[in-house]
Amino acid sequence: MGLKKRTKVSAEFSMSSLTDIIFLLLIFFMLTSSVVSPTAINLQLPNSSTRAKQTKKVEGPIKLNINKNKEYTLNSRPIKEDKVRKELATIVNNDRRLPEDITIVLSIDESVDAQTLVSNVDIINDFGIKMVLATKLSN
Hints:
- By secondary structure, the chain is an alpha/beta fold.
- It contains three helices and seven strands.
- It has a domain at 52-137: Nucleotidyltransferase, domain 5, CATH 3.30.420.
- The chain has helices spanning 16-35, 84-94, 114-127; strands at 47-48, 62-66, 72-74, 77-79, 103-108, 130-133, 136-137.
- The relative contact order is 0.16.
- Pfam families: ExbD.
């Protein structure tokens, strides 16, 4: 009696399990990429098309300027970077107004790094005075 084998080896490949794994990986990477936050700060200085209106006050705001060479001027007087806190403390302590009524205008060049901006904003916030970030005038 001649018995023949009925089992044949199939050369077909099932893609269903592979596509399931690919879709699971795709979902995983999409979810994790939305959770990850970038470590760099993309800082853009605001622009304005008009000049601010000057209001009449008894005493004007304090002006802190930082140019592209990181040279500081406080009320048009040059100061060193490490003396900003001390000079602001002197001005705030000698001012007749309450600290929350004092305003400082921070004008910083756009080429200065963000860490300088953040550290100066922290110093200003430590005194509890209002701060205005000056904009560059666009033509």
